[in-house]
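Changelog-linked ticket: flavin-adenine dinucleotide example.
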Amino acid sequence: MTDTFDLAIVGGGLVGASIAFGLRERGMRIAILDEGDRAHRASRGNFGLIWVQGKGLGLPAYGNWTQASAHLWPKLASDLKQATGVDVALSQPGGLHLCLSARELDARAAKLEALLAQPGFERYRLDMLDRDALLRRLPGLGSDVVGGSWSDLDGHCNPLRLLDALHLACVGAGIVYRPNAAVRVIAPHRGAFALDTTAGLVNAQRVVLAAGLGNARLAPMVGLRAPVVPNQGQVIALERVQPFLSIPVETLRQTDEGTVLIGDAQRDVGLDESLSTDVLATMARRAVRMFPALAGVRVTRAWAALRIMSPDGFPIYAASRTSPGAFVATCHSGVTLAAVHAYKLAPAIAETWPADLDVYAPERFDVRAAA
Ligand SMILES: Cc1cc2nc3c(=O)[nH]c(=O)nc-3n(C[C@H](O)[C@H](O)[C@H](O)COP(=O)(O)OP(=O)(O)OC[C@H]3O[C@@H](n4cnc5c(N)ncnc54)[C@H](O)[C@@H]3O)c2cc1C
């Protein structure tokens, strides 16, 4: 059986689902083609931050894009609530990056100074705070915390509810979600695309590759490139405790349900999603140095998941020149960027691809390699 759609989105993680959500009211017949439950999915293992501070060093446009998403997030949360009734627990009270030594603090200050000094970077309020200023915001801080940085724009949400709400809204709007439909081959054919999936053949006028790590293999089939690799992160979940942390910290946050999450680590271990006790112990020790009261709180579970990393860490968005109608979208901050993916990237795919997205094209890797 062959199905025909105006648009096929390959990948039903946060990136594909956010784009589909942004396209849901355009009268297009859309299918999301996804793998099965055992697939690698960053969208099911992430930390849930909507994080702006520190982003965009080396690509100021990315800092601006991230800010735009933080500003659009309240609209996303409200549109999702209206469409599905799901509350994604958005909270944007600002956020903190904490430093545990003078060296860390100096490095942080230097990084943020360089970030703000970039031509074309839209400046926002970003403060370095000393220990006393931090204590006024977080009275339970450990004595090892020497200072940190603050941005008003940061926040967090429940990322599993976000994914669920996006899917519910898409399906509710008539978008076809097809799990267990891994795309094996995409063949451009007479201005359209034939997708050979494990659940049969799908034809589409346009195709968006939002397959996370799968984009590396699929992109060349439609004249695109997405040289992404896995980068492992780990998360520790602690039991529910009384509210003590109203502000998310870059590596530590209390959820709306009262549990505490510790998230960190950048490991180059290929497709390995197994936990390392050394890494978990380091993360836990740092968390206890930040908030000593956590020493008595029990761990309920821990997991590892794979980020989707491009060579420079910035997103890859591109429209194919050789196979018009094919696009690729991938990034390592798909929670933060969900709002721009819905309200800015989706229209670019449906209408005209704007020149300001060209900074995210994979050709930048050739320039850097040649330099
Ligand atoms: C530990 C960790 C912490 C993180 N913390 C944050 C955070 O705090 N804030 C933030 O903004 N971001 C965070 N991220 C990043 C964020 O989770 C990702 O950027 C986002 O989930 C990427 O979504 P995606 O849809 O591109 O990829 P995925 O979630 O990996 O989804 C890709 C989908 O494509 C499917 N697929 C692959 N190949 C095929 C194929 N051939 N055919 C059909 N389907 C296919 C897969 O099955 C999968 O469902 C974190 C990530 C990790 C790992």
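Closing comment: Example verified and attached. The chain has a mean pLDDT of 96. The chain is about 30% helix and 25% strand.
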